[in-house]
Design a protein that fits this description.
Layout (H helix, E strand, L loop, with lengths): L2 H8 L9 E3 L10 E3 L9 E2 L1 H5 L8 E3 L2 E2 H7 L4 E3 L1 H13 L5 E5 L1 H5 L7 H13 L5 H22 L10 H10 L1 H13 L8 H14 L8 H5 L16 E6 L5 H12 L5 H13 L2 E2 L27 H7 L7 E6 L5 H6 L2 E5 L6 H12 L5 E2 L12 E5 L2 H13 L5 E2 L2
Parallel strand pairs: 1-4, 6-14, 7-8, 7-10, 8-9, 10-11, 11-13, 12-13
Antiparallel strand pairs: 1-2, 2-3, 4-5
Length: about 425
Protein backbone atom coordinates (compact mmCIF):
# COMPACT_ATOMS: atom_id res chain seq x y z
CA UNK A 1 0.00 0.00 0.00
CA UNK A 2 1.44 3.37 -0.97
CA UNK A 3 0.86 6.49 1.10
CA UNK A 4 -1.96 7.81 -1.08
CA UNK A 5 -3.62 4.41 -1.13
CA UNK A 6 -3.64 4.46 2.65
CA UNK A 7 -5.09 7.95 2.69
CA UNK A 8 -7.80 6.93 0.26
CA UNK A 9 -8.74 3.99 2.44
CA UNK A 10 -8.74 5.81 5.76
CA UNK A 11 -9.85 9.31 4.87
CA UNK A 12 -12.65 11.02 6.74
CA UNK A 13 -14.09 12.32 3.50
CA UNK A 14 -16.15 10.06 1.24
CA UNK A 15 -17.48 12.19 -1.56
CA UNK A 16 -17.02 13.15 -5.15
CA UNK A 17 -13.30 13.91 -5.12
CA UNK A 18 -11.74 12.17 -8.08
CA UNK A 19 -8.38 13.70 -8.85
CA UNK A 20 -5.91 15.89 -6.95
CA UNK A 21 -2.89 17.70 -8.31
CA UNK A 22 -0.30 19.19 -6.01
CA UNK A 23 0.04 22.92 -6.57
CA UNK A 24 3.62 22.98 -5.28
CA UNK A 25 6.68 20.77 -5.86
CA UNK A 26 7.23 17.77 -3.65
CA UNK A 27 9.62 19.45 -1.18
CA UNK A 28 6.78 21.66 0.13
CA UNK A 29 4.15 18.92 -0.09
CA UNK A 30 1.41 19.24 1.01
CA UNK A 31 0.01 22.77 1.32
CA UNK A 32 -2.89 22.84 -1.14
CA UNK A 33 -4.72 20.32 -3.25
CA UNK A 34 -6.81 21.23 -6.26
CA UNK A 35 -9.91 19.20 -6.93
CA UNK A 36 -10.88 18.52 -10.51
CA UNK A 37 -14.35 19.65 -11.51
CA UNK A 38 -16.85 16.79 -11.62
CA UNK A 39 -20.44 16.37 -12.61
CA UNK A 40 -21.34 16.84 -8.96
CA UNK A 41 -19.97 20.35 -8.70
CA UNK A 42 -17.21 22.81 -9.56
CA UNK A 43 -13.58 22.48 -8.62
CA UNK A 44 -12.62 23.49 -5.10
CA UNK A 45 -9.46 24.23 -3.19
CA UNK A 46 -8.68 22.03 -0.19
CA UNK A 47 -6.25 23.63 2.20
CA UNK A 48 -3.58 22.23 4.45
CA UNK A 49 -5.84 22.14 7.50
CA UNK A 50 -8.21 19.74 5.76
CA UNK A 51 -5.26 17.56 4.83
CA UNK A 52 -4.00 17.60 8.42
CA UNK A 53 -7.38 16.24 9.47
CA UNK A 54 -7.08 13.39 7.00
CA UNK A 55 -9.70 14.77 4.62
CA UNK A 56 -8.25 13.18 1.50
CA UNK A 57 -9.85 10.62 -0.75
CA UNK A 58 -7.82 11.02 -3.92
CA UNK A 59 -7.83 8.51 -6.71
CA UNK A 60 -4.67 9.84 -8.33
CA UNK A 61 -2.22 12.18 -6.65
CA UNK A 62 0.66 13.70 -8.58
CA UNK A 63 3.71 15.72 -7.66
CA UNK A 64 5.01 17.84 -10.50
CA UNK A 65 3.01 15.72 -12.93
CA UNK A 66 4.24 12.43 -11.48
CA UNK A 67 2.58 9.94 -9.20
CA UNK A 68 3.93 9.62 -5.67
CA UNK A 69 5.24 6.16 -6.56
CA UNK A 70 7.15 7.63 -9.50
CA UNK A 71 8.53 10.43 -7.32
CA UNK A 72 9.73 7.94 -4.74
CA UNK A 73 11.61 6.03 -7.40
CA UNK A 74 13.74 9.15 -7.89
CA UNK A 75 14.35 9.71 -4.20
CA UNK A 76 15.00 7.15 -1.50
CA UNK A 77 13.36 9.36 1.13
CA UNK A 78 10.61 11.96 1.15
CA UNK A 79 11.69 15.00 3.16
CA UNK A 80 10.28 18.34 4.36
CA UNK A 81 6.73 17.07 4.86
CA UNK A 82 4.04 18.82 6.85
CA UNK A 83 2.87 17.37 10.16
CA UNK A 84 -0.33 16.11 8.55
CA UNK A 85 1.43 14.14 5.84
CA UNK A 86 4.04 12.97 8.34
CA UNK A 87 1.34 11.57 10.61
CA UNK A 88 -0.40 9.82 7.73
CA UNK A 89 2.85 8.37 6.43
CA UNK A 90 3.58 7.04 9.90
CA UNK A 91 0.23 5.25 9.84
CA UNK A 92 0.98 3.99 6.35
CA UNK A 93 4.35 2.60 7.39
CA UNK A 94 2.73 0.78 10.30
CA UNK A 95 0.29 -0.89 7.92
CA UNK A 96 2.27 -1.78 4.84
CA UNK A 97 5.52 0.01 4.01
CA UNK A 98 8.71 -1.90 4.58
CA UNK A 99 6.96 -5.25 4.88
CA UNK A 100 8.99 -8.15 3.51
CA UNK A 101 7.91 -9.02 0.00
CA UNK A 102 6.77 -12.51 -0.94
CA UNK A 103 7.02 -12.42 -4.72
CA UNK A 104 5.65 -15.38 -6.69
CA UNK A 105 6.27 -15.40 -10.45
CA UNK A 106 4.70 -17.40 -13.24
CA UNK A 107 7.19 -18.71 -15.81
CA UNK A 108 5.74 -19.04 -19.32
CA UNK A 109 4.88 -15.63 -20.75
CA UNK A 110 5.70 -13.85 -17.50
CA UNK A 111 9.41 -14.30 -16.83
CA UNK A 112 9.76 -15.37 -20.46
CA UNK A 113 8.59 -13.32 -23.42
CA UNK A 114 6.50 -16.19 -24.78
CA UNK A 115 5.38 -19.73 -23.97
CA UNK A 116 8.21 -22.27 -23.78
CA UNK A 117 6.31 -25.58 -23.78
CA UNK A 118 7.50 -26.21 -27.36
CA UNK A 119 10.93 -27.06 -25.90
CA UNK A 120 9.45 -30.39 -24.75
CA UNK A 121 9.57 -31.42 -28.40
CA UNK A 122 13.22 -30.40 -28.58
CA UNK A 123 14.03 -32.49 -25.47
CA UNK A 124 12.49 -35.55 -27.11
CA UNK A 125 14.33 -34.82 -30.34
CA UNK A 126 17.70 -34.61 -28.55
CA UNK A 127 16.93 -37.86 -26.74
CA UNK A 128 16.12 -39.58 -30.04
CA UNK A 129 19.32 -38.35 -31.66
CA UNK A 130 21.38 -39.46 -28.65
CA UNK A 131 19.85 -42.93 -28.71
CA UNK A 132 19.57 -43.05 -32.53
CA UNK A 133 15.83 -43.65 -32.40
CA UNK A 134 13.58 -43.37 -35.47
CA UNK A 135 10.71 -40.92 -35.84
CA UNK A 136 10.20 -37.15 -35.85
CA UNK A 137 9.53 -35.93 -32.26
CA UNK A 138 9.11 -32.31 -33.38
CA UNK A 139 6.29 -33.25 -35.74
CA UNK A 140 4.75 -35.47 -33.06
CA UNK A 141 4.76 -32.55 -30.64
CA UNK A 142 2.83 -30.45 -33.16
CA UNK A 143 0.27 -33.24 -33.26
CA UNK A 144 -0.08 -33.20 -29.47
CA UNK A 145 -0.57 -29.42 -29.51
CA UNK A 146 -3.26 -29.70 -32.18
CA UNK A 147 -5.09 -32.42 -30.24
CA UNK A 148 -5.00 -30.27 -27.12
CA UNK A 149 -6.60 -27.33 -28.90
CA UNK A 150 -9.31 -29.59 -30.30
CA UNK A 151 -10.08 -30.92 -26.81
CA UNK A 152 -10.21 -27.39 -25.45
CA UNK A 153 -12.56 -26.18 -28.18
CA UNK A 154 -14.88 -29.15 -27.70
CA UNK A 155 -14.97 -28.67 -23.94
CA UNK A 156 -15.64 -24.95 -24.30
CA UNK A 157 -18.49 -25.64 -26.70
CA UNK A 158 -20.37 -27.93 -24.30
CA UNK A 159 -19.59 -26.16 -21.02
CA UNK A 160 -22.34 -24.18 -19.30
CA UNK A 161 -22.58 -21.34 -18.49
CA UNK A 162 -20.95 -19.81 -21.55
CA UNK A 163 -18.25 -17.16 -21.14
CA UNK A 164 -20.62 -14.24 -21.69
CA UNK A 165 -22.76 -15.46 -18.75
CA UNK A 166 -19.84 -15.96 -16.37
CA UNK A 167 -19.90 -12.50 -14.86
CA UNK A 168 -18.54 -13.21 -11.39
CA UNK A 169 -15.27 -14.59 -10.09
CA UNK A 170 -16.78 -17.78 -8.68
CA UNK A 171 -18.28 -18.83 -12.00
CA UNK A 172 -15.01 -18.15 -13.83
CA UNK A 173 -12.97 -20.02 -11.22
CA UNK A 174 -15.29 -23.01 -11.58
CA UNK A 175 -14.78 -23.05 -15.37
CA UNK A 176 -11.02 -22.83 -15.01
CA UNK A 177 -10.96 -25.62 -12.43
CA UNK A 178 -12.94 -27.93 -14.69
CA UNK A 179 -10.32 -27.48 -17.44
CA UNK A 180 -8.37 -30.12 -15.53
CA UNK A 181 -10.18 -32.68 -17.71
CA UNK A 182 -8.55 -31.20 -20.81
CA UNK A 183 -5.12 -31.02 -19.16
CA UNK A 184 -5.31 -34.61 -17.90
CA UNK A 185 -6.25 -35.87 -21.38
CA UNK A 186 -3.29 -34.01 -22.86
CA UNK A 187 -0.82 -35.43 -20.33
CA UNK A 188 -2.25 -38.94 -20.76
CA UNK A 189 -1.86 -38.67 -24.54
CA UNK A 190 1.82 -37.73 -24.26
CA UNK A 191 2.47 -40.47 -21.69
CA UNK A 192 0.65 -43.14 -23.76
CA UNK A 193 2.99 -42.51 -26.68
CA UNK A 194 6.07 -42.58 -24.39
CA UNK A 195 7.01 -39.29 -25.96
CA UNK A 196 9.43 -38.21 -23.22
CA UNK A 197 10.61 -41.66 -22.10
CA UNK A 198 14.39 -41.84 -21.84
CA UNK A 199 14.90 -38.07 -21.58
CA UNK A 200 17.79 -37.28 -19.23
CA UNK A 201 18.84 -34.12 -17.47
CA UNK A 202 21.58 -33.65 -20.07
CA UNK A 203 18.90 -33.50 -22.78
CA UNK A 204 17.00 -30.87 -20.82
CA UNK A 205 20.12 -28.79 -20.22
CA UNK A 206 21.09 -28.95 -23.89
CA UNK A 207 17.57 -28.06 -25.01
CA UNK A 208 17.61 -25.06 -22.67
CA UNK A 209 21.03 -23.96 -23.94
CA UNK A 210 20.05 -24.17 -27.60
CA UNK A 211 16.74 -22.39 -27.00
CA UNK A 212 18.39 -19.51 -25.12
CA UNK A 213 21.18 -19.23 -27.69
CA UNK A 214 18.71 -18.94 -30.57
CA UNK A 215 16.49 -16.51 -28.66
CA UNK A 216 13.53 -18.89 -28.78
CA UNK A 217 13.55 -18.75 -24.99
CA UNK A 218 14.10 -15.15 -23.97
CA UNK A 219 13.58 -13.64 -20.52
CA UNK A 220 12.01 -10.25 -19.99
CA UNK A 221 14.26 -7.30 -19.04
CA UNK A 222 14.52 -6.93 -15.27
CA UNK A 223 14.38 -10.64 -14.43
CA UNK A 224 17.75 -10.53 -12.66
CA UNK A 225 16.56 -7.79 -10.28
CA UNK A 226 13.46 -9.72 -9.29
CA UNK A 227 15.24 -13.04 -8.75
CA UNK A 228 17.82 -11.28 -6.58
CA UNK A 229 15.07 -10.51 -4.06
CA UNK A 230 15.86 -13.78 -2.31
CA UNK A 231 19.56 -12.98 -1.93
CA UNK A 232 21.16 -11.45 1.13
CA UNK A 233 22.69 -7.99 0.83
CA UNK A 234 26.16 -9.56 0.54
CA UNK A 235 25.06 -12.05 -2.13
CA UNK A 236 22.77 -9.70 -4.08
CA UNK A 237 24.02 -10.10 -7.67
CA UNK A 238 22.57 -6.87 -9.05
CA UNK A 239 22.21 -4.58 -6.04
CA UNK A 240 18.44 -4.61 -5.56
CA UNK A 241 18.63 -4.06 -1.79
CA UNK A 242 15.06 -5.25 -1.30
CA UNK A 243 13.78 -7.18 1.68
CA UNK A 244 11.91 -10.25 0.57
CA UNK A 245 11.78 -13.64 -1.07
CA UNK A 246 10.94 -14.86 -4.54
CA UNK A 247 9.73 -18.14 -6.03
CA UNK A 248 8.34 -19.49 -9.30
CA UNK A 249 4.97 -21.23 -9.61
CA UNK A 250 4.36 -22.79 -13.02
CA UNK A 251 2.26 -25.31 -14.93
CA UNK A 252 5.33 -26.07 -17.08
CA UNK A 253 6.16 -29.76 -17.29
CA UNK A 254 9.76 -29.51 -16.06
CA UNK A 255 11.31 -27.64 -13.15
CA UNK A 256 14.72 -28.76 -14.41
CA UNK A 257 14.09 -26.97 -17.71
CA UNK A 258 13.06 -23.74 -15.96
CA UNK A 259 16.17 -23.74 -13.78
CA UNK A 260 18.46 -24.62 -16.70
CA UNK A 261 16.98 -21.81 -18.81
CA UNK A 262 17.57 -19.30 -16.03
CA UNK A 263 21.19 -20.39 -15.64
CA UNK A 264 21.79 -20.26 -19.38
CA UNK A 265 20.32 -16.75 -19.49
CA UNK A 266 22.62 -15.72 -16.63
CA UNK A 267 25.58 -16.59 -18.88
CA UNK A 268 24.89 -13.32 -20.72
CA UNK A 269 25.39 -11.18 -17.60
CA UNK A 270 27.56 -8.07 -17.80
CA UNK A 271 30.29 -9.49 -15.55
CA UNK A 272 31.46 -12.89 -14.32
CA UNK A 273 30.74 -11.80 -10.75
CA UNK A 274 27.11 -11.05 -11.53
CA UNK A 275 26.82 -14.32 -13.44
CA UNK A 276 28.27 -16.37 -10.57
CA UNK A 277 26.04 -14.71 -7.99
CA UNK A 278 23.00 -15.18 -10.19
CA UNK A 279 23.85 -18.87 -10.50
CA UNK A 280 23.88 -19.14 -6.70
CA UNK A 281 20.51 -17.40 -6.47
CA UNK A 282 19.06 -19.64 -9.18
CA UNK A 283 20.35 -22.79 -7.47
CA UNK A 284 18.57 -21.75 -4.27
CA UNK A 285 15.42 -20.45 -5.98
CA UNK A 286 12.23 -22.32 -5.00
CA UNK A 287 10.53 -23.50 -8.20
CA UNK A 288 7.19 -25.24 -7.82
CA UNK A 289 6.35 -26.94 -11.09
CA UNK A 290 5.80 -30.36 -12.61
CA UNK A 291 8.71 -32.67 -13.37
CA UNK A 292 9.42 -35.70 -15.53
CA UNK A 293 9.40 -38.83 -13.38
CA UNK A 294 12.69 -40.67 -12.68
CA UNK A 295 14.77 -38.05 -14.43
CA UNK A 296 17.93 -39.13 -12.59
CA UNK A 297 17.58 -42.80 -13.56
CA UNK A 298 20.38 -44.35 -15.63
CA UNK A 299 17.74 -45.04 -18.26
CA UNK A 300 16.29 -41.55 -18.19
CA UNK A 301 12.73 -40.55 -17.42
CA UNK A 302 9.85 -43.01 -17.48
CA UNK A 303 7.99 -40.44 -19.55
CA UNK A 304 5.40 -39.77 -16.86
CA UNK A 305 4.69 -36.08 -16.27
CA UNK A 306 4.25 -36.20 -12.51
CA UNK A 307 7.18 -37.01 -10.26
CA UNK A 308 6.14 -38.95 -7.16
CA UNK A 309 5.83 -36.70 -4.12
CA UNK A 310 5.40 -33.52 -6.16
CA UNK A 311 2.13 -31.62 -6.57
CA UNK A 312 0.50 -31.86 -9.98
CA UNK A 313 0.06 -28.31 -11.28
CA UNK A 314 -2.16 -28.08 -14.35
CA UNK A 315 -4.82 -25.43 -13.79
CA UNK A 316 -5.56 -22.05 -12.24
CA UNK A 317 -7.05 -23.90 -9.24
CA UNK A 318 -3.85 -25.93 -8.82
CA UNK A 319 -1.86 -22.71 -8.79
CA UNK A 320 -4.17 -21.25 -6.16
CA UNK A 321 -3.72 -24.33 -3.96
CA UNK A 322 0.08 -24.07 -4.26
CA UNK A 323 0.33 -20.28 -3.84
CA UNK A 324 1.95 -19.96 -0.44
CA UNK A 325 0.93 -16.69 1.16
CA UNK A 326 3.23 -15.52 3.93
CA UNK A 327 1.95 -13.82 7.08
CA UNK A 328 3.26 -10.28 7.71
CA UNK A 329 4.44 -10.07 4.10
CA UNK A 330 3.27 -8.17 1.06
CA UNK A 331 2.20 -11.15 -1.08
CA UNK A 332 2.67 -10.32 -4.77
CA UNK A 333 1.80 -12.63 -7.65
CA UNK A 334 2.77 -11.93 -11.28
CA UNK A 335 1.15 -13.72 -14.22
CA UNK A 336 0.01 -13.31 -17.81
CA UNK A 337 -2.88 -15.66 -18.60
CA UNK A 338 -6.12 -17.13 -17.27
CA UNK A 339 -4.12 -19.95 -15.68
CA UNK A 340 -3.04 -17.22 -13.22
CA UNK A 341 -6.57 -15.91 -12.60
CA UNK A 342 -7.14 -17.33 -9.11
CA UNK A 343 -3.63 -16.68 -7.82
CA UNK A 344 -3.75 -13.07 -9.02
CA UNK A 345 -6.97 -12.52 -7.06
CA UNK A 346 -5.61 -14.30 -3.97
CA UNK A 347 -2.54 -12.03 -3.74
CA UNK A 348 -2.33 -8.75 -1.84
CA UNK A 349 -1.16 -7.37 -5.17
CA UNK A 350 -1.75 -9.25 -8.41
CA UNK A 351 0.22 -7.95 -11.39
CA UNK A 352 -0.58 -8.86 -15.00
CA UNK A 353 2.13 -8.68 -17.65
CA UNK A 354 0.79 -6.85 -20.70
CA UNK A 355 2.67 -6.43 -23.98
CA UNK A 356 1.77 -3.97 -26.72
CA UNK A 357 0.11 -5.47 -28.64
CA UNK A 358 -1.20 -8.03 -26.17
CA UNK A 359 -0.60 -11.70 -26.77
CA UNK A 360 -3.59 -14.05 -26.97
CA UNK A 361 -3.17 -15.25 -23.38
CA UNK A 362 -2.83 -11.69 -22.09
CA UNK A 363 -5.91 -10.57 -23.98
CA UNK A 364 -7.84 -13.54 -22.67
CA UNK A 365 -6.92 -12.61 -19.11
CA UNK A 366 -7.76 -8.92 -19.65
CA UNK A 367 -11.14 -9.80 -21.18
CA UNK A 368 -11.88 -12.17 -18.31
CA UNK A 369 -11.17 -9.58 -15.63
CA UNK A 370 -13.32 -7.03 -17.48
CA UNK A 371 -16.19 -9.53 -17.79
CA UNK A 372 -16.21 -10.39 -14.07
CA UNK A 373 -15.95 -6.74 -13.04
CA UNK A 374 -12.33 -6.58 -11.84
CA UNK A 375 -10.57 -3.31 -12.60
CA UNK A 376 -6.90 -3.57 -13.55
CA UNK A 377 -4.84 -0.38 -13.26
CA UNK A 378 -1.39 0.40 -14.61
CA UNK A 379 1.28 -0.04 -11.98
CA UNK A 380 2.38 3.62 -12.15
CA UNK A 381 -1.10 4.56 -10.91
CA UNK A 382 -0.95 2.22 -7.93
CA UNK A 383 -1.43 5.28 -5.67
CA UNK A 384 -5.01 5.40 -6.84
CA UNK A 385 -6.14 2.13 -5.30
CA UNK A 386 -6.00 0.88 -1.74
CA UNK A 387 -4.55 -2.58 -1.17
CA UNK A 388 -7.54 -3.65 0.90
CA UNK A 389 -9.00 -5.76 -1.79
CA UNK A 390 -7.36 -7.79 -4.00
CA UNK A 391 -5.46 -5.10 -5.91
CA UNK A 392 -4.95 -5.83 -9.60
CA UNK A 393 -2.31 -3.97 -11.59
CA UNK A 394 -0.73 -4.39 -14.99
CA UNK A 395 2.87 -3.76 -16.04
CA UNK A 396 4.65 -3.56 -19.35
CA UNK A 397 7.75 -5.34 -18.09
CA UNK A 398 9.55 -6.67 -15.03
CA UNK A 399 11.48 -3.43 -14.51
CA UNK A 400 8.21 -1.61 -13.78
CA UNK A 401 7.41 -4.27 -11.18
CA UNK A 402 10.83 -3.94 -9.59
CA UNK A 403 10.46 -0.16 -9.28
CA UNK A 404 6.99 -0.58 -7.77
CA UNK A 405 8.36 -2.95 -5.12
CA UNK A 406 11.29 -0.65 -4.48
CA UNK A 407 8.94 2.31 -3.99
CA UNK A 408 6.76 0.37 -1.54
CA UNK A 409 9.76 -0.25 0.69
CA UNK A 410 11.41 3.14 0.30
CA UNK A 411 8.25 4.87 1.45
CA UNK A 412 8.72 2.95 4.67
CA UNK A 413 12.28 4.13 5.23
CA UNK A 414 11.13 7.17 7.17
CA UNK A 415 10.64 10.88 6.51
CA UNK A 416 11.60 14.05 8.28
CA UNK A 417 8.78 16.26 9.43
CA UNK A 418 9.08 19.96 9.13
CA UNK A 419 7.03 22.57 10.60
Amino acid sequence: MTALQFLSRHSLYRGSLQHYKLMFPIHVLPYYFHERSTSRGPARIINRNCLDQGVVNGVVCTAGGRTIAAAVRDSARLTHLSRGMQRMLNNFRANMAGKPINLVLDWDGTLTKKDTMFVMGRMADLRSKRLELPGDPLAAWEGFAKAYMEDYAAYEARYEPKARSRTDREAESAWLKRLEDVEVRSAARVQKHAFLRGVKREDINLAARKSVETGEVSLRPGWQKLLALSATAEEDPVGTSLNGQVSILSVNWSEAFIRASLKESAQYSDTEEIRDRLHKSIDALPILSNELASLESNYGSTGRLSEAGRPRIRTSYDKLMNFKREAEHLNVYVGDSTTDFDALLAADVGICICDDPMGSGQKGLADTFARVGCEVTHIDQADSHGLHGPTLLWARDLNEIYHFLLASQRLGDGTRSEG
